[in-house]
Design brief:
Oligomer: heterotrimer
Structural class of chain B: mainly alpha
CATH class of chain A: Mainly Alpha
Shape of chain B: globular
Chains: A mainly alpha, B mainly alpha, C alpha/beta
CATH topology of chain B: ABC transporter involved in vitamin B12 uptake, BtuC
Number of domains of chain B: 1
Strand order of the largest sheet of chain A: 1-2
Order of helices and strands of chain A: HHHHHHEHHHHEHHHEHH
Structural class of chain A: mainly alpha
Strand content of chain B: under 5%
Distance between the termini of chain B: 43 Å
Shape of chain A: globular
Mean pLDDT of chain B: 88
Order of helices and strands of chain B: HHHHEEHHHHHHH
Distance between the termini of chain A: 28 Å
Number of helices of chain B: 11
CATH architecture of chain A: Orthogonal Bundle
Number of domains of chain A: 1
Number of strands of chain B: 2
Strand order of the largest sheet of chain B: 1-2
Low-confidence stretches of chain B: none
Mean pLDDT of chain A: 86
CATH topology of chain A: ABC transporter involved in vitamin B12 uptake, BtuC
Number of helices of chain A: 15
Chain lengths: 349, 289, 420
């Protein structure tokens, strides 16, 4: 079993070489030190970057590891955010308790989608459409729930950020930054741990050839559902962070299809199914976007849509030229990961 | 609360639904043959809309008259897209094609945003405010003309696929790709043709839509989703299915908008989509595979 | 079909927006406000503008920007220079938040924005967290001044005030024309603003003793492509009056559908929302847009300051329509005015000093209809009034209150068909 699970790990590009560990260490140290030198704008950009990286990581569990394409992941973000926010606004319950409700609600929604989808054999693109439909339903529904603010939005009370109240998630931008950094690292650790266990191996088998896995006696339904639940719960935690960081929630935005696509951009660019792909993707796209915005600002022109246009172009280029993402070939080239077989892919037709 | 819906509302739903159905036809044709889920469908329709708007502004053309030209341009575009880009991904996992088209969609939407700005723009034809009054029915002229054109185009497509040699060849390719290759058909060329036809159809639908709806770039994702709902409900690969799906969605949204809270009317369509995906994924008129 | 030409509002390529104000070199005459007793050397007040110059609210946002540019030119004098730091919120709350952070990082000492309540809420949080004052130019959600923020000052009515004034003006309208509708149907866009208006109408109707009975409230999706079912629903109620809280494009779609469905109520009145006096509205609807009434805050035709602004506007932006922009220009100008006034009284441009000075604002000479600008302890200006603005000959025209009216109101509205 250990040989097989290490195969799953190496397939995900998770096995770092000595040099890889060094690079990782430097990168981590830099991230830890950023708040001491950066201004609040830079910090907010990094926080958003890490947030998307974290969500991408969560999505990756469902798609990259278990092969289930979800284009409605904003559903879980929103459910997590609204659950915790509602508890806080209406009952004064803090986020560390609220997050459990958020995870539960999201997991239930994931279970519903998973059970319905898998039982009725909804696969591939149809499954993706199913996830979109659920997210859209929820978006329109929440726009009409006045207890949650409806279309007008749910606002959390804020105060001046002089003190850091970790328990209540109220504080300076630096505090939030460290929270999301810890979350992202925790996600990395969790994914690595999962990949090394039996479940990681089963996911790989399911992803490669679901029928064959079933024939071999793997309870495909159970492990696919597990992926959905874990992914949903992780995503919900990101939603809770969002609620307490931005302090306002609008159904139109948080459950939107474009948000769902934003979440997966990092992963697609970085590399689906890899361990470091989502985070790497974030560190490619966000600086690119900021550079573009900054250049346009300097030139004194404002062309809305330019950034998204470039992102779309990058996505197209990656799909055609580097379908496994940028991370796997780059990491191999730079000698950061141990040599592995081809990175993870969904079953060939 | 009374459940009676004025006949005009139903009629408007039917007319609108026919135009959306034409749009979905383009999507259905592409999926039925090339087996690619065109996530950029709405974007192609909106390109058609802007084409009609530009021709209206610079050449004074009514969108109905502009449709053939728009169709030709989008045919070429679709053909090139398939040949140049999507063809590279035949044989790759299905979701990669989906994602490629999502990327293309992102580029198209934002390109339009950069060129035309986000504000909605209307094409005003001389009869934009006129209506036909037939007894209790009040029907806007623009909708009637658009629906008639949609039915004509759909009919034309149906004849193309059932009577012409090329059309039948394309259908053969759809039914059995391996067999088609074995028999010596140039499958990539047929795919490109089909994508062109699908795009042209979507473009014509866009022109017709311009008469009824104001064009703005962010309409595109909505139209993509609507296209998917219609096609899945009606049945992928079935021409009548697409029109039927369009009718169904048009009428049900009219009902829902009138009887319930209008801002919730889309929930109905999504609910229908979920039911069909679960219970009858081939759609109402689709073939069970 | 006749060979009438097809009319299309110009499908222009999007205008490139320039981020730096270009008015300084134009030589527009400065305001001549009372000089501060201390003639210090020129200080610069950095005003961070957060406006939706792109996205859904682009039209309005760009109008606001023109107001800001005029303000910067007219208010820079007597030792104080106004420097605008402009940012585009892209009609998105998250972008608004991040841009606000950036502007503060770039040295903005006061923020002005953000047109939409949702975006403004996001900006307000950033302002509060940094201790930088925010002067709201346009945003109606009551929560903004109810959350206990110390840094937020709003020179704009809450939706409750807007609707209260709007309903009162309706009563005046019925009195002036001696025609009273017995029933009404309300239509609201399903977004922050529309729902706030809905809540306000429902709360105030019983209190204000309005002569009509509301038969139905219709919520519609403000981004809907098509309002035919909604208008059919309104028509089916048979109501005499249509009260609509719209945004921009939905206003156009609403009237267009009403014409096509041959639904002519006694009147179409907005209780305090935009859309019916936008440039695009007139362009698309032409004569069909006439006689619609918007009960909204408006430029005071008697204000000297307003006249100077109009002169500057017509000189600087000849291709734009002043009347359609006046609302956005006026409030944005006032916001910058409030900021500069505070800076003068404080004798400093430091945010802390501004925060101390802002509560004491008292400006009798300003732009919009209403009492002198001042703020209550929550930072809210309760003295902003409204006027009944009716579209006449495709131009927004004040018809009430009588003292500011240019023409007499017309109610009920004439038939759609056969308008010349």
């Amino acid at each position: 079993m250990s040989a097989l699970s290490s195969d799953a790990l190496s397939q995900a590009g998770a096995g770092l070489t000595a040099r890889g560990w060094r690079v990782f260490g430097v990168w981590l140290a830099a991230l830890l030190l950023v708040p001491t030198v950066a201004d609040s704008y830079f910090l907010s950009v990094l926080t958003t970057l890490l947030w998307f990286a974290y969500l991408g990581q969560a999505w990756n569990v469902m798609m990259g590891f278990a092969g289930q394409l979800s284009l409605g992941h904003s559903l879980y973000v929103g459910l997590g955010a609204y659950s915790a926010a509602a508890l806080f606004v209406h009952f004064g319950i803090g986020p560390w308790a609220g997050v459990w409700l958020g995870m539960l609600v999201a997991a239930l929604a994931g279970a519903a989608i998973g059970v319905l989808g898998f039982r009725f054999r909804v696969r591939g693109v149809y499954f993706a459409l199913l996830t979109i439909a659920f997210a859209e339903l929820t978006r329109i529904g929440f726009s009409h729930i006045s207890w949650l603010g409806g279309a007008g939005g749910l606002f959390l009370p804020v105060s001046q950020r002089v003190n850091n109240d970790l328990a209540g998630l109220r504080g300076t931008p630096a505090m939030f930054y460290y929270v999301i950094l810890v979350l992202t690292l925790a996600a990395l650790l969790l994914c690595r741990w999962l990949l090394g266990r039996r479940i990681g191996y089963y996911w790989q088998a399911i992803r490669e050839d679901q029928e064959a896995a079933q024939a071999l006696g793997i309870d495909v339904f159970r492990y696919k559902l597990a992926a959905v639940l874990i992914s949903a719960a992780m995503t919900a935690v990101g939603g809770v962070f969002y609620a307490f960081f931005y302090n306002n929630l609008f159904p139109e935005q948080i459950f939107s299809l474009s948000r769902s696509i934003e979440i997966i951009l990092d992963v697609l660019i970085g590399g689906i199914g890899t361990l470091f792909g989502p985070v790497f993707g974030g560190f490619v796209l966000t600086p690119l976007g900021e550079l573009l915005t900054w250049s346009l600002d300097r030139a004194g022109i404002n062309i809305p849509g330019a950034k998204q246009f470039v992102y779309g172009g990058v996505l197209v280029a990656i799909v055609i030229f580097l379908p496994d993402g940028i991370w796997p070939p780059l990491a191999r080239r730079l000698g950061l990961t141990r040599a592995s077989s081809d990175p993870v892919r969904s079953s060939e037709p | 609360m009374s459940f009676s819906v004025p006949p005009s509302v139903i009629a408007t739903g039917v007319l609108t639904g026919l135009v959306y159905g034409l749009g979905a036809l383009g999507l259905s044709v592409i999926f039925g043959v090339v087996r690619v889920v065109n996530f950029a469908h709405g974007e192609i329709m909106v390109l058609g809309m802007y084409g009609a708007a530009l021709l209206a502004q610079h050449a004074g053309l009514d969108p109905l008259a502009a449709a053939p030209l728009v169709a030709a341009v989008l045919f070429a575009g679709g053909w090139a897209l398939q040949r140049g880009l999507i063809n590279k991904l035949i044989g790759r996992p299905e979701h990669m094609q989906f994602i490629l088209l999502a990327g293309v969609a992102m580029m198209l939407v934002n390109l339009m945003l950069m060129l035309f700005g986000p504000e909605a723009q209307a094409v005003q034809v001389a009869y934009a405010f006129d209506s036909f009054e037939l007894g209790p029915l009040v029907l806007d002229k623009v909708r009637v003309y658009a629906a008639l054109a949609a039915v004509l185009v759909a009919g034309g497509l149906s004849l193309f696929f059932s009577r012409t040699r090329l059309g039948k060849t394309i259908r053969a390719c759809a039914d059995n790709q391996l067999g088609a290759r074995v028999v010596g058909l140039d499958v990539p060329r047929l795919y490109a043709l089909t994508f062109g036809i699908g795009s042209a159809t979507a473009g014509i639908a866009g022109c017709l839509l311009t008469l009824m709806v104001d064009v703005r770039p962010l309409l595109a994702p909505e139209l993509t989703l609507l296209g998917f709902i219609i096609v899945i409900v009606g049945g992928l690969g079935s021409l009548t299915g697409a029109l039927l799906g369009g009718l169904l969605i048009g009428v049900s949204e009219a009902f829902a908008g009138f009887l319930l809270l209008p801002s919730m009317k889309s929930m109905f369509s999504y609910g229908l989509l979920i039911l069909i995906l679960l219970l009858r994924p081939q759609g109402l008129l689709g073939k069970s595979s | 079909m006749t060979d009438e030409k097809i009319s299309v509002p110009p499908l222009r390529l999007a205008r490139r927006q320039f981020t730096k104000a270009a008015l300084a070199a134009t030589g527009v005459a400065a305001m001549g406000l009372p000089a501060s007793a201390i003639l210090a050397q020129t200080r610069t007040l950095k005003v961070g503008m957060l406006l939706p110059r792109s996205g859904f609210f682009a039209q309005a946002g760009q109008g606001c920007q023109r107001g800001a540019d005029i303000a910067a030119a007219l208010l820079s004098e007597n030792g104080l220079r106004v420097e605008l730091l402009n940012a585009d919120t892209e009609s998105d709350a998250n972008v608004a938040r991040s841009r606000a952070e950036k502007l503060i990082g770039d040295g903005a000492q006061v923020l002005v924005g953000a047109f939409d309540s949702g975006h403004t809420a996001a900006v307000a949080q950033v302002a509060e967290q940094h201790g930088v004052p925010l002067v709201i130019n346009i945003a109606a959600a009551p929560q903004l001044t109810e959350q206990g923020y110390r840094t937020v000052f709003r020179n704009f009515p809450t939706s409750k005030t807007l609707v209260r004034n709007g309903l009162a003006l309706m009563k005046d309208l019925f009195q002036a024309t001696r025609k009273t509708p017995a029933t009404a149907v309300c239509m609201y866009a399903n977004d922050t603003f529309g729902q706030a208006n809905k809540a306000a109408v429902e709360a105030l109707l019983p209190q204000l003793d309005m002569p009509f009975r509301v038969l139905e409230s219709i919520n519609y999706d403000f981004a809907a492509k098509d309002l035919s079912a909604e208008v059919a629903k309104a028509k089916a109620t048979g109501a005499d009056l249509v009260i609509a809280s719209t945004r921009a494009n939905d206003a156009i779609m609403l009237v267009r559908e009403m014409v096509k469905q041959r639904y002519r109520p006694m009147g179409l009145i907005s209780p305090g929302s935009p859309g019916f006096y936008d440039d695009q509205f007139y362009k698309v609807l032409g004569r069909y847009g006439d006689f619609v009434i918007s009960n909204v805050p408006w430029i005071d035709p008697k204000s000297e300051v307003a006249r100077r602004i109009e002169t500057a506007y017509r000189k600087e932006f000849p291709s734009y329509r002043y009347e359609s922009d006046a609302f956005n220009v006026g409030f944005t100008f006032e916001a910058v005015l409030v900021a500069t006034d505070a800076a003068r009284r404080a004798g400093s441009t430091d945010p802390k000093a501004l925060l101390q000075a802002l509560p004491g604002t008292h400006l009798p000479e300003h732009v919009m209809i209403g009492a002198p600008i001042q703020f209550d302890p929550k930072g809210q200006n309760n003295g902003v009034g409204s006027a009944a603005v009716q579209n006449r000959n495709q131009r927004p025209t004040v018809v009430l209150p009588k003292s500011s009216a240019e023409l007499d109101p017309v109610f009920p509205i004439p038939a759609w068909q056969g308008r010349s």
